[in-house]
Amino acid sequence: MTTFDEREQAFERHFVHDEEQRFRARVRRNLLLATWACERMRIEEEAAARFVEDFTDRGVLTADETLIAELQADLKATGIDETLPALRKEMERCAALARAEQRVGLALDQGSSA
Q1: Sign of the CA dihedral 27, 64, 109, 49?
Q2: Do 75 and 81 meet the contact criterion of CB atoms below 8 Å apart?
Q3: pLDDT of residue 1
Q4: For 88, how many CA atoms within 13 A lie in the half-sphere containing its CB?
């Protein structure tokens, strides 16, 4: 094998690793955001688990803006008015927490910005 081939394979492995990390951070971000929303909507236990699972499943293939709009509709259905900018800010907080968790290798306390 040539040095060029080795470099190419290393680059491909690095690319795959980075993409996997981005995917995992996005899934964790969505889980944290859904958990936050459940707290705001006062959904508990089994219903919360179903909501979180559904939201994270939707979030895999859904664009962020669409996901935020759907979350806003979910919140509104329970009588909670949240602005899109506030939801984007919460999504970014959850994303930052997910990235921090990746760096330290464990789940950190979620907390809430609300």
Answers
A1: negative
A2: yes
A3: 64
A4: 7
59, two tokens: 């979030």
Alpha carbons 104 and 107: distance in angstroms, whole number: 8
Contact 94, 36 (CB under 8 A): yes
Token readout for 100 is 């921090």
How many CB atoms are located within 10 Å of the residue 62 CB?
A: 15
**Distance from CA of residue 95 to its chain's centroid?**
6
- What digits encode the pLDDT tens for the residues 1-58? 678 888 888 889 988 888 999 999 999 999 999 999 999 999 999 999 999 999 999 9
Angle, helices 3-41/64-77, rounded to nearest 10 degrees: 10
Reported pTM: 0.83
Q: How far apart are CA 95 and CA 100, in angstroms?
A: 9
Tokens of 5: 């081939």
Q: Could you tell me where the beta strands, DSSP code E, fall in 9-93? A: none
